[in-house]
Amino acid sequence: MIHLKEGAVLVADAHYASYRPLFSTLIDKIISKEIQTTQLLLMGDVFDLLMGPIDAFIQAEKEIIDKLNTLSLEIEIIYLEGNHDFQLSSIFPHMKIYPMALQPVLSVYNNQEGFLAHGDWAGGFIYNLYSKIIRNKLVLKLLNFTDVVVRYKLSQKFSQKMRKKLICSEFIGFENYIKNKFKKNKRFHGWFVEGHYHQGSNFLLEGMIYHNLGALACNKSYFVVQSNNNVITLSHHTL
Fold this sequence. Notes:
Blueprint: E1 2-3, E2 9-11, H1 22-31, E3 39-42, E4 50-51, H2 55-60, H3 62-71, E5 76-80, E6 85-86, E7 96-98, E8 105-109, E9 112-117, H4 125-134, H5 137-149, H6 153-164, H7 174-183, E10 191-194, E11 201-205, E12 208-212, H8 216-219, E13 221-228, E14 231-238
Helix pairs in contact: 1-3
């Protein structure tokens, strides 16, 4: 269970890489206390590509990884793994890591229960099978071995592909899509916060407050937990 704190900072879908450095700016502002918080929630896809056993991805992001590890000794950092960043426990030993298999995560704020997730938790059979395979540590170690043998051409190809990918677009019919998604998964209550879709929209969902976080990579958005008559609200901020 996650206990959300007043003033917690939430950031989703930063898709950090050398060609998309805004997340590093946010972390620098937290380190310098320009943005003050005692709790940071990384809501998945914070990195464009970061997979625990893949050496090339870790080395490429070493500077920001070191910053995060230093910061995690000072404030609580909770990381909900996404579909671009997973098998992270060995990289971030002082964070609380929640893989996709443990999401959505039951959470509490002001004694009110809700849920937190990256957002890709309700895929179909094929997507779920792919997710389990690609997140398997042995599979990733094999990929890493192959990448080393071919002199990192594999990781370079992945990085080039991600750099060309268009990640910021309007999801037409998003609200109806989410309503259908939750009709098949009725075990939730209270409030629900997730990223993944990059839409930055909020609405009521069968009595539950649903928040889809805007993507830092798309509109420079991060969010701060605040209370409104003891009800959770997420104030929107931009860098």
